[in-house]
Please model this.
Amino acid sequence: MNHSHTFSLPRLWAIVVKEFIQMRRDRLTFGMMIGIPLIQLILFGFAINSDPKHLATAVHVADHGPQARSVLGSMKASGYFDFIREVANEAEGERLLATGEVQFLVTIPAGFSRELLRGEKPTLLLEADATDPAATGNAIAALKIIARSALDNDLKGGLAFLQSGADPLELRVHPKYNPEGVTQYNIVPGLMGVVLTMTMAMITALAITRERERGTMENLLSMPTKPLEVLLGKIIPYILVGYAQVGLILLAARVIFNVPMVGSLTLLLAVAMLFIIANLAVGITFSTLARNQLQAVQMTFFFFLPSMLLSGFMFPFRGMPGWAQMIGELLPLTHFLRIVRGVLLKGNGFAEISGQIWPIALFALLAVVVGVKRYRRTLD
Amino acid sequence: MEPEFTIDVHGMTKIFDGKTVVNGMDLRMRRGEICGFLGPNGSGKTTFIRMLCGLLHPDGGSGSCLGYNVIRESEKIRLESGYMTQRFSFYEDLTIAENLDFVARMFSLPGRRASVEAALEWLGLANRRNQLAGELSGGWKQRLALAACMIHKPRLLLLDEPTAGVDPKARRQFWDTIRTLADGGLTVLVSTHYMDEAIRCDSLAYIAYGNLLVHGTPAEVAGDSTLEEVFVRLMDGVEDSYH
Ligand SMILES: Nc1ncnc2c1ncn2[C@@H]1O[C@H](COP(=O)(O)OP(=O)(O)OP(=O)(O)O)[C@@H](O)[C@H]1O
Ligand SMILES: [Mg+2]
Model:
């Protein structure tokens, strides 16, 4: 009578094998798993625009003259830039850009004010994280106007000649990671997360309710099973389905949309596993809460909608109100989007994305714990 | 150590939404006994059986099953008993062999493949092993379910109308098998609506509206008349007092 009172790998494997066979025979669901990514790819091939403000900005100030302060003041007044960090050197600023902590890095070079007064047209450098062009485009456009008018008050009287004709300073913008501002670069990798959120959560949400509705649950419960064995047994086979979807979207991204893939695909695929598990786990939790398959589907939509709207997929994350950003931070999709974009477009390595990994892991763990707690071992 | 009674429960009660479905039922069964569980539709037979194997939490009652506490040790009871549900509850999208293999794996059977082969042989379905369970006729589904719930050689069988829809020859084969197994020490609680099956049991328990009305050997229960007459009379009497 071994394996009876503790978690048993053979029993887990029994359920995995069974689920695999059932999945293979369920043509409709299998078709849906492949069809949904294709439809989404077609639907979201175009962009959605908006005007996000208060974008996190780091400043690297090497000149403390009054004119430098004027420029920064005007940028702040425009509402587009929030100076959240002052960095001591270029490298630190670059790191903040790479991790996504800031959207912009403004550099005021040494001698800015002096050169300006001499009419030598100093350079104001703006480096932008342009992975999501919709998020940065308006801010960059605004800065061009600011650069021209910021110094109107300072350059009066005897200095007015500096204003005549051309701009008093040279604005140099470096859109990083996606210099052409192609929105598909942003949307298509994001789709990977959206498709996984929808299909993975849905498929496991139906897993336990289906057993209840078909009556097979009575038989399953009458055998010596542990909740964790059943739940994991229903999660594991679908990890493969998730990877099939990831492969499909990456292929489309590469072949149809020419999305650049700068970073490590291995890293991306490794993190995708965690994200797939998180979504399968939340689905299985819905499955233990729902009374029937319809309820399970409705719960999935209640999870899917905020994920889609508040994760930064539909609207630039920084453009959303604070409360929406707070909800967004709780959702695995938000973090996965940052990872996908970071790795594919920016070439992020593990160090840069590690801050996005643990929230997904925590979410997955919580979902499994709630699922195990809520799994009913009787028919009551 | 083998307990004297394989099933020994008292006061088993189940209430659904304020309606008492099983009302303080007692039952004792010795090792190797075949007990026929009878009663009109909706009398609480399925509910009682489910409480024995821990699929439903009793609202009252206590006792033991296979020597284990019927309330607290349902895990152990499940491991050593076989429960055949009234409604077919195996996977219709798995083949006959896959269903049997699944059960064998769930019970971590040592000689898994051999057990599955033996079950297929007993069923006489070895040549249709790769047919989907959902494509079987009603009677064959019953037989598959029966084979599956016996695959782990349980000490107690709880069978909920195992022969409903099964043809006479297969029913005879089924009862012959059950009798042989019972002689070897298997205890069987079997619900049925067939009188010819009731006669073959060692004891009969008749339940109506959740109350155990009669419990005894077929001869004791029948007395001078036939079992059928007794049960129809019982049913009439109960209906009179409840309506
Ligand atoms: N999960 C449940 N929730 C509410 N009521 C239930 C539930 N299960 C059974 N009942 C009710 O309990 C009563 C007894 O049902 P049960 O299935 O135990 O009868 P039975 O003796 O097995 O009948 P049959 O011979 O038709 O199989 C019925 O009135 C039924 O409606
Ligand atoms: Mg019944």
